[in-house]
Amino acid sequence: MNYRFISPTEIQFYGLRSSARFITTKKLRFKIQNHKVTVPKGFVADGFEFSEDFSVKPVWLLVEWIYATHKYDYQLADRGVVDIHLFNAYPEMLDIDNDELILNGVRISGDDLWQEALERGYAICPEIVEEINSYENPYTGNAEQFIGLAIGLIFSMVGFAIAK
Question: Can you give the pTM of this predicted structure?
């Protein structure tokens, strides 16, 4: 899984913007033309209304990262190149009006949105992903521990029955 939904509880606990919907679960590497782009683990994204396939790296996530940072790994990004890359990834879902992309009647690109994204900033919270990945459910975890617990419970019940 490359990314997942972020819960309302996580949004509230970490003080994230209310529009946040997704978080990357690992570092994602993309290539856009001849530029490398690395989206860090824990990047919090609003997302678009594209169908979610959590097993593939979503191009919209790359675009949201570049809109927020205005850069590839080693140089400043060009909005036109980024928008064309997004359009080529989802041509059946996007329309073009002048030099702006439209998704379901809503404009998702443009010079003003490019600037707003930079001013709004972005959030990276890898600790959210770490906490979930490090959690071990005691009921589905180590089978030996479960067997030991069951045997201990049986002996306790036998000892209780004998004591009566």
Answer: 0.71
Residue 104: partners with Cβ closer than 8 Å, 6 or more residues away: 49
What are the backbone angles phi and psi of residue 35, rounded to the nearest 5°? -105, 135
Assign 81 to helix, strand or coil: helix
d(CA 122, CA 117): 8
Q: Could you give phi then psi for residue 73, rounded to 5 degrees?
A: -65, -35
Cα separation of 140 and 30, whole Å?
35
- Tens-digit pLDDT profile for residues 39-71: 999 999 988 766 666 777 788 888 889 999 999
The rounded distance, in Å, linking the Cα atoms of 24 and 102 is 25
Domain ranges of the chain: 3-136
* The pLDDT of residue 84 is above 80: yes
